[in-house]
UniProtKB/TrEMBL annotation:
Entry's Gene Ontology molecular function annotations: collagen binding
Name this protein carries in UniProt: Cochlin
A Pfam match: LCCL
Predominant localisation class: secreted
Taxonomic classification: Eukaryota, Metazoa, Chordata, Craniata, Vertebrata
Location of the LCCL domain: 68-161
Organism this protein belongs to: Coturnix japonica
Record-level GO cellular component terms: extracellular matrix; extracellular region
Gene Ontology biological-process entries: regulation of cell shape; sensory perception of sound
Presence of keyword Signal: yes
Domain VWFA: 206-391, 408-555
Residues annotated as transmembrane: none
Domain of life: Eukaryota
Length: 555
């Protein structure tokens, strides 16, 4: 007899025997039945050991659900499990840094089950049994660092789950013998973790898709819009070194669905887009555009230095609010706005449009490049490639850098005795008013201040504060020094200690000197040295400041 035939017969016999296991009996029955099998061949014994391992790992084939655990991988997500309540077995030694976890206590179904269980403290990285309870979706999932895992923020997801310790004793005993490659009891091959790809390196861009979620578009066309956005995302070539994308939904109130940092693989983005729910309400696109320009693009949310920032606005019909102001804000933040309009207003509907020229006023430049029109949401595949080509045309991104968002401004403040407390406060007010005009952020403009007499004191540097509010608060808290006036030494100090650390950055450097009197040292030499270092110097005279000194320092 060929070995293969004997093994097949043994399998059939074991299947027949296993089908007759009485409910509630343990695996010892299987072991004793096999050991007493007359003339058990090596193949049968090998299969017996295999079957015994399956019983140890997953529990009896029949009986109550509470005794059955499904072996999963490190990367199985909540959405991969279909039962409302299910007990699973997490393997040991999962790489913590690779987990994707969203929330705390209640986790978005996109989260890794084992990652959530470790984050919650239900198990350790040694693995173990976990009970999963499916829950409704949440509006917000917070970011919390716990047990070596940093969960991430996620806005509005369709479903959630919670984790508690498992109760299957057999599974708990077997975990030490199980391996991380164990397959689920369903027989399905576990999903492999998504390999992080570099993506399209020729199309580096940080893109926010601002989708229409208003009653204008409706549920059906909303789904067609999601399909189109998904096709665009795939063709862009999303990856760690390529484009990064996020989604914001415009309706009554804007909602950031996910940020640039949340997903860097096309499959992840596609699934996230598919899960988006329709919100309804008025199409307050202007409000959503302004919100996205101000809140979406930051380093904390995944924006990258030196990469073009783009908002692609999808508009079904027309907006119910003003886009012009939002377009101005976006340009000041260095954001390139594209408008993709679908189904233009009919002649009868034009009377409901606040501003017929809303597209030209919202886009980055009114040159035709930043507007894109599709007749309907049907048959949109042919429009995907032309839009992607536009989004990847870096040389056309005319709004990426502006004076408002790409400068370092250092203020050199005269704190000498001749200024006086009241004039000193006026200088601080002047600095605050200048700072208010710029878009200060970790990837935008930055402010620094130095006060000088005979000595110099750095009040705050370019890296200390990355929001306008904090900068303005720091300016208000500057205290008057009082003393002599040595402007030249102060210029040299600021060039070396304040501008030195940022000299290789992308921002342009400006030094604004505010003084009321003649300096006791040479000003011209340090000013020339500052200019050779790439710093443009401005002098602002206060009260009776000598004009000659001001000119020498600003040459």
């Amino acid at each position: 007899m060929r070995p293969g035939r004997g093994l097949r017969r043994a399998r059939r016999r074991l299947r027949h025997s296993a089908a007759e296991v009485p409910p509630g009996e343990d695996v010892g029955w299987v072991a004793s039945s096999l050991s007493s099998c007359p003339g058990a061949c090596p193949a049968a014994m090998q299969l017996a050991q295999l079957l015994l391992g399956v019983f140890l790992l997953c529990g009896p084939a029949r009986g109550s659900d509470s005794s059955a655990s499904t072996a999963i991988t490190c990367f199985t997500r909540g959405l991969d499990l279909r039962k409302e309540t299910e007990e699973v077995l997490c393997p040991a030694n999962c790489p913590l840094w690779q987990f994707y976890v969203f929330g705390d206590g209640v986790y978005a179904s996109l989260s890794s089950v084992c990652g959530a269980a470790i984050h919650r403290g239900v198990i350790t990285n040694a693995g173990g049994a976990v009970r999963i309870q499916t829950l409704p979706g949440q509006e917000n999932y917070p970011a919390v660092n716990a047990n070596g895992i940093q969960s991430q923020v996620l806005s509005r997801w369709a479903s959630s789950f919670s984790v508690t310790p498992g109760t299957n004793k057999l599974a708990l005993e077997a975990v030490g013998r199980s391996v991380s490659t164990a397959r689920p009891a369903t027989g399905k091959r576990p999903k492999k973790p998504l390999e992080k790809k570099a993506g399209n390196k020729d199309c580096k861009a940080d893109i926010a898709f601002l989708i229409d979620g208003s009653y204008n578009i409706g549920q059906r066309r909303f789904n067609l819009q999601k399909n189109f956005v998904g096709k665009v995302a795939v063709m862009l070539g999303i990856g760690t070194e390529g484009p990064h994308v996020g989604v914001v939904q415009a309706s009554e109130h804007p909602k950031i669905e996910f940020y640039l940092k949340n997903f860097t693989a096309a499959k992840e983005v596609l699934f996230a887009i598919k899960e988006l729910g329709f919100r309804g309400g008025n199409s307050n696109t202007g409000k959503a555009l302004k919100h996205t320009a101000q809140k979406f693009f930051s380093m904390d949310n995944g924006a990258r230095k030196g990469i073009p920032k783009i908002i692609v606005v999808f508009l079904d019909g027309w907006p119910s609010d003003d886009l012009e102001e939002a377009g101005i804000v976006a340009r000041e933040f260095g954001v390139n706005v594209f408008i993709v309009s679908v189904a233009k207003p009919t002649t009868e509907e034009l009377g409901m449009v606040q501003d017929i020229g809303f597209i030209d006023k919202a886009v980055c430049r009114n040159n035709g490049f930043f507007s894109y029109q599709m007749p309907s949401w049907f048959g949109t595949t042919k429009y995907v490639k032309p839009l992607v080509q536009k989004l990847c045309s870096h040389e056309q991104m005319l709004c990426s850098k502006t004076c408002y968002n790409s400068v370092n401004i250092g203020f050199l403040i005269d704190g000498s005795s001749s200024v006086g407390e009241s004039n000193f406060r006026l200088m601080l007010e002047f600095i605050s008013n200048v700072a208010k005009a710029f878009e200060i952020s970790d990837i935008g403009s930055k402010i620094a201040t130095v006060q000088f007499t005979y000595d110099q004191r750095t009040e705050f540097s370019f890296t200390d504060y990355t929001t306008k509010e904090k900068v303005l608060s720091a300016i208000r808290n500057i205290r008057y020094m009082s003393g002599g006036t040595a402007t030249g030494d102060a210029i040299s100090f600021t060039t070396r200690n304040v501008f030195g650390p940022v000299k290789d950055g992308a921002n342009k450097n400006f030094l604004v000197i505010l003084t009321d009197g003649q300096s006791y040292d040479d000003v011209r030499g340090p000013a020339i040295a500052a200019q050779k270092a790439g710093i443009t110097v401005f002098s602002v005279g206060v009260a009776w400041a000598p004009l000659d000194d001001l000119k020498r320092s600003a040459d």
